Amino acid sequence: IDGIPEGGCIVIKWRGKPVFIKKRTEEELNDINAVDWKSLRDPQTDKARRIKEEVLVVLGVCTHLGCVPISNAGDFKGGWFCPCHGSHYDASARIRKGPAPENLEIPPYSFLEGDSKLLIG
């Protein structure tokens, strides 16, 4: 994951599903940490959704009807937007606007080789 630029997001496949791996910027982290997480539709802290603060790993499947959201799009800086039905996720992949009922799912993962590689599953 060393090759992912700050603010960038790559997509890989795991079990036939897209997985988004995003390196978040300090500005994105400030934005998501400023949110009162208890007020969200699917309340979850950012800390509960990641291992390392700057790296987020989520399944790229909208929780509304299973579409694939677009990275770095929508109403929330560094987040995701599902153009099919209008769901907006923040840079922690938490649902913030639109019909999706839940946050994007976090797959089981761990870091290897001094945090330069990621193992999913």
Task: Write up what this structure looks like.
- There is one protein chain.
- The protein is built from one helix and nine strands, in the order ββαβββββββ.
- It has 121 residues and is mostly beta strands.
- A hairpin with an 8-residue loop joins strand 4 (70-71) and strand 5 (80-82).
- The model has no long low-confidence stretch (mean pLDDT 96).
What key phrases describe this protein's structure?
3-stranded antiparallel β-sheet, 4-stranded antiparallel β-sheet
Count of β-strands:
9
Coarse structural class: mainly beta
Query: Order of strands across the widest beta sheet?
Result: 4-5-6-7
Largest sheet: 4 strands, antiparallel
Percentage of β-strand residues? 25-35%
Strand-helix topology:
Layout: E1 9-14, E2 17-23, H1 26-33, E3 55-59, E4 70-71, E5 80-82, E6 87-89, E7 95-97, E8 109-112, E9 117-120
Antiparallel strand pairs: 1-2, 2-3, 4-5, 5-6, 6-7, 8-9
